[in-house]
Amino acid sequence: MVDGSMLWSGSASFGRQRYLGIISAATTLRHLDQILAHSIVSSHHPDLITVTALLRRVSDLGGSAAAPHALRLFSSVEYPDIFLLNVLLRTLPHSFALPLLSSLPCRYPHLRPNSFTYATVASAAAARPESIAALHARIVVDGFANDPYVGSALADLYLNSSQVSIAEKVFDAIPEPDTVLWNTLISGLVDNCSFSRATSVFQRMMISNTAKFSSTTLAVILPAAAELQDLILGSLVHCLAIKLGFASLTHIVTGYSINGLVASSVCLFKKLLALGVETPNSSTMVGLIPVFNPFGYELLVTCIHGFSIKAGIALNSAVSTSFTAIYCRVDDMESARRVFDAMPKKNIASWNAMISGYTQNGMTEMAISLFKEMQVSNVKPNQITVTSILSACAQLESLTLGKWVHDIIIEERIELNVFVLTALIDMYAKCGSISEARKIFNEMEEKNVVSWNAMISAYGLHGKGTEALKLFEAMLSVSIVPTGVTFLSVLYACSHGGLVENGQAIFKSMLCDYGIKPRPEHYACMVDLLGRAGRINEALEFIQTTPESSGPGVWGALLGACMIHKESKLARMAAEKLFELEPENPGYYVLLSNIHSSKRNYLEAAMVRQDARKKHLLKSPGRTSIEVGDVMHTFTANGNVHPQSPAIYSELEKITAKMTEEGYQPETDAALYDVEEEEKEHMVKVHSEKLAITFAIISTDPGTEIRIFKNLRVCLDCHSWTKFVSKITERLIIVRDATRFHHVKDGVCSCGDYW
Q: Is residue 150 situated within a structural domain?
C-alpha cells in the first residue's frame, strides 16, 4: 500500500531507484498522482526514466480510460525523448495516437519519429481508414518506406483494409524484407482470398537469398494450397517443415486433412492422444476438422465438435469459424448458426463463414440480413464478404440490393480484385443489366478465366450468341486457356442464338484441340442446340452416341425441343425415359401434357396429368417478381392479393383494349397448353407476368424501364403481349424467365422469337 507518509519520510535521500520501486507497487491512479507530486516538490521531476515508468503504470492501471491522464503526464516534460513518445503511443487508444503524431512538428519540433513510432501508429490507423494514405505519405517523406519493421506494419494495415495491391507495393519498396514482412504479406493475401498471389509470393521467398522460413510461414501458406487444391505445394510445405524441424504431429494431422486423407488424420490424432506427446489445442482442432472434404464425415464432425467442447476450446475463434464453415458445407445451417451465435468474439472470418454459408445454400435473404447485422456491429467487410453478398443479390435478382452493395464497396474502399469484379459482372448480368456487366469487364486490369467465363455466360443468358462468340475468340487471342465451364457457356450462347454450326465446331474443338472431356451438361447443351433449331432427329441421333452417364439432362433437352416444335411422338419416348431416370420430377409430366394439348390430344394430356396426380407430384406455380423502389412485389396467375389489384386489373383492361386496336390477338396455341400450370385464357384468367408489367406501368413514370423475373418459361401469348405493350407504352421491358433474358423494345424482342 502506497500512502503519503511513506513518500514524504526521508525525502532528502529519495532517489530514482526508490521511485521506480514505489511506482511498480502503486495500485491506483491516485497513488501515481502522489508519486508525481512528490517528485515535483523534491525536484526529481522531470526525470525521463521515472516519467516513463509512471506512464507505463498509468496505462496498466487505467487502460484506455486513462488516456487524458497519460497525455497530461507526457506534457509535463518540457523536452521528452523519442522513447517516451513511443511508450505513450503504445498506451494511448487509437483516437489519440494519430492526432498526437500530427501535432509533433508544432508542439515538439525536436522529436523525430523513428521506425518504432510509425509501426505503432500504423496499428492505430486501422481504426481510421481515411488516415492511412496520409500516414503512408509521411512515412515516405521521413525516409522510412524501406524499413522492414515499418513496412510490415504498413503492409498489414493495407491488407486488413483489403487493399492488396498497395500492400504489395509497400512490400516491393523494401530492398531486403525480413521473415516477419514475408509472413505478413503471405498471411494477408490468404486472408483476402488472393491464394494464387500468396503462392507466388511464397515462391519468391523460396528463391530469395535473404529470406528465412519460420513455422509461421509454413502455417499461413497451407490454407492457400488447400483452397487451390495444390497437392504438390502442400507436399512441398510438408517436406520443408520436416527439413527445418518445424513439423509436429499437429502439422501432419492438418496435412492429412487438407489433402483429403481424413481417415489418416483421425488415426494420427488418436495416437497423439494416446501417447500424450502433444496436448491438442485450437490449431490441432482446426487442422483435424475436414473443412475441405466434409461430405460423408458428418458424424465425425459431430464427434470432433463434442471433443472440442469437452477440451474447452470450442469457443476459440478459429475453431468456431471452422465448425461454422463445415456445418454450412454439409447444409446443417441450424448447427452452423448455433456455433456462430455462441462465439464470444466474432472476427471477419467468422462473419464471412456464416454469410457465405447462407448464400451457398440458397438462403439469400438470411445472408443479406446477417450482412446488415454485421454492419451494425461495425465490422468492416472485405472482398470475401462482398463477393458472397453479390452472389446473394444475383440469386435474388435484385438490382437495387446489388447496387447498394456496389456502393458499399466504393464507400469502404474495398479493393476491386478479380474476384470482386467477377462477382459484380455476374450480379449485374443476372439482374438484367448486361451493359453494366460489360462496362465492368472492360475496365478490369486483370482478368482470369473465371472473369471471361462470367462475361461469356452473361451474353448467353441474354441471348447474345454472336457477342459471346466474339468474346470467346478474344479470350483465346490473349492466351487464356478455356475450361469446361467456358465451353459450356459458349455452347449455351450458341443454343439460344440459333448458331448451330458454330456450336458444333466448338464442341468438336473442346475435345480435339483442348483435351477436355465433355460432361453430361455439355451433351445436354448440344441436344438443346440441335433441338431448338428444329433438328430433332439429329438431336436424337446425337443422344444415341453419348455415354450412358449423360443422365436425364439430354432427354430433358430433347423433351423441351419437342414442346417447342410440337413433336408429340418423340416427346412420348423422351418422357418415358425421363420418368425412369427422375420419377419424382413433375415438370416432365407437365411438358408432355402441354405437348399433347398443343396437338389437341386432350385425352392423352388428361391421362398424363392423372398419372402425375396419382404419384402426388405437384409442380411449382408460376410467379413473377418485380422490384419497384426498394420493394419486391410478387404476382401469381389471376392473383388478387396485391393491395393495388383493382387498379392493376382496371389498367390491364385498358391496355388490352388498346393492344387489340393495334392488332394484338391472343395466341390460341398458348391457350391450349399450360406452360406454367396457370389457367387458360378462355377462362378469363391472366398470367403473372401480365399483372407484374401492368403494376409497373401504373407505379412508375412514363418511359421507365421495366424489369420482371419469371420462375418458369414465358409462354407464347405473354411473349406476344409483352411486345405489344412495349410498343404502345414506349418502354423497354426486360423479362427474365427460366431460360434466358428477353429485352423487348418497340415491339421487338432480342430473342428474335427464338427461345
A: no
Burial of 517 (0-12, 13-18, 19+ CB in 10 A): exposed
Q: How high is the mean pLDDT of the chain?
A: 83
- Check if the beta carbon of residue 503 is closer than 8 Å to that of residue 468: no
Beta carbons within 8 Å of 257's beta carbon, 6+ residues apart: 265, 287, 288, 289, 290, 291, 292, 293
Q: Are strands 706-710 and 733-736 parallel, antiparallel or unpaired?
A: parallel
52-56, 235-239, 743-747, range with greatest mean pLDDT: 743-747
How confident is residue 40, by pLDDT bands cut at 50, 70 and 90?
A: low
**Count of alpha carbons within 13 angstroms of residue 612, beta-carbon side:** 21
Residues 664 and 735 in one domain: yes
Does residue 117 sit within a domain?
Answer: no
* Domain C-terminal end among 420, 454, 482: 420
Burial 416-447 (b: 16+ CB within 10 A, else e): bbbbbbbbbbbbbbbbbbbebbbebbeebeeb
Domain finish residue from 345, 379, 402: 345
- Residue 114, SS3 per DSSP: coil
Residues 6+ apart with CB under 8 A from 651: 694, 697, 698
Rounded to 10 deg, the angle between the 348-360 and 317-329 helix axes is: 10
Give pLDDT tens digits for 147-176. Answer: 888 888 888 888 887 788 888 998 988 888
Query: Where is pLDDT greater, at 262 or 124?
Result: 262
Q: Is residue 40 part of a domain?
A: no
The number of beta carbons lying within 10 Å of the beta carbon of residue 611 is 14
Question: Cell 478459429 identifies what position?
Answer: 318
Reported as a single tens digit per residue, the pLDDT across 350-361 is 999 999 999 999
Residues 383 and 273 in one domain: no
Q: Do 262 and 195 share a structural domain?
A: no
CA distance 499 to 48: 83
Phi then psi for residue 239, to 5 deg, are: -65, -40
- Nearest CA to 38 out of 60, 10, 1, 77 is that of 10
Cβ atoms 589, 597 nearer than 8 A: no
Do 717 and 653 fall into the same domain? Answer: yes
| Predicted local distance difference test score (pLDDT) of residue 39 | 67
- Segment 703-711 mean pLDDT: 92
Neighbours of 148 (CB within 10 A): 19
Which structural domain, as residue segments, surrounds residue 297?
249-345
Q: Measured between alpha carbons, how far is 272 from 261 in angstroms, rounded to an integer?
A: 17
Alpha-carbon distances, residue 184 vs 194, 377, 385, 510, 642 (angstroms) = 13, 26, 21, 42, 56
> Stretch 196-213: mean pLDDT, rounded?
86
Helix (H, G, I), strand (E, B) or coil at 735: strand
Q: Annotate 546-572 with DSSP letters as a single string.
A: S-GGGTHHHHHHHHHHHHHHT-HHHHH
Is residue 253 a part of any domain in this protein?
Answer: yes
Do residue 266 and residue 338 come from a single domain? yes
> If you ran DSSP here, which 8-state letter would residue 129 be given?
G
Closest CA to 499 of 555, 536, 445, 460: 460
Total domain count, the chain: 4
CB 119, CB 147: distance < 8 Å? no
Residue 570 has pLDDT above 50, yes or no: yes
Same domain for 327 and 256: yes
Residue 379 falls in which region: left (phi positive, over 0), alpha (psi -120 to 50) or beta = beta
Are 377 and 322 found together in one domain?
Answer: no
Asked whether 224 and 198 are in contact (CB, 8 A), the reply is yes
Are residues 254 and 237 located together in one domain of the fold?
no
